[in-house]
Structure of Protein-arginine kinase:
Amino acid sequence: MTLQHFMNEAISPWMRKDGPDSDIVLSSRIRLARNFAEFTYPILANETDLQKISEFIRNEYEHQTFQDYENLEFIPIKNLTPIEKRVLVEKHLISPHLVEHDHSSGTLISENEQVSVMVNEEDHIRIQLYFPGFQINKALEKAFEFDDWLEKKIDYAFDETRGYLTTCPTNVGTGMRASVMMHLPALAMTQQLNRMIPAINQLGLVVRGIYGEGSEAIGNIFQISNQITLGRSEEDIVQDLQSVVQQLIEHERNARARLMEQSGTKLEDRIYRSYGVLEYSRIIESKEAAKCLSDVRLGIDLGIIQNVTRNILNELMVLTQPGFLQQYAQKTLTPNERDVLRASLIRERLQLENS
């Protein structure tokens, strides 16, 4: 397996499977922050120590297999081109923050892209494990198992009182971020989500954009995650997140039903107009494409559009991002060139679906 394996497909293999409530929940993720007990944390560590950590991870775990996570591949960030870095960020295999620290950083990725371990980001290692749909409890169970497997060879920085020790105080304790990626077009259209966010924040959870902290909610896709890591168990944190997500699913379904009942023709018109833009545009910006893809996905979920599968929309949401467009073209593109190629790829993909 080579780097090209991760570059060729816009949609990761695990994303091709449907999960519970996948009409609204795109994915569930557990991220665990861990540090080596014997090394200074990345923010203060010297380059020699960071390189030792990177080499240790590569030597001990590259090409290894643990359960369903086969043929782990270590990718040094410094070896990547700017376009390749951007593609891995767009696929959520690495964070934008990891790209900024590329000298001794890397990522360990399973062949099915369900697990990635970021090395020397904010912490020495950050384990990410994904599941399709709403499977946050299963993701937690599998993340624990993978974490235990790594810990057989790593002495983690851990305090009996404080829990796992991390670079940022907000991660001390469990070191865990549990998050769920949701498509909430009806709540966004009816302005209900804006009223819900303050209440969600009061419960120790946060609503962010598609790429996490500081990112924009593109295409009505929102990430719901925990803020509190200290003083509570992982199971309690996940239970709170699960409760809120279940309520959001119910509210989104009710909002969709009301839109169909009260403004059905208007909603259908919006959905078909967006479909027409995707099918016939010769130039389209990323925000407009994301908005139209969100509308069409809603149309699929409501049974209004029946000739396009949900997976095609998942694929296009990634394929039309700037990094993937340039990877596809095998060169750096101007914004206008990206907009033209984006429109062309969407047309071609929809035509293939309809043929």
Notes: The radius of gyration is 21 Å. The chain has twelve helices and ten strands. The longest helix spans residues 234-280. The mean pLDDT is 90.
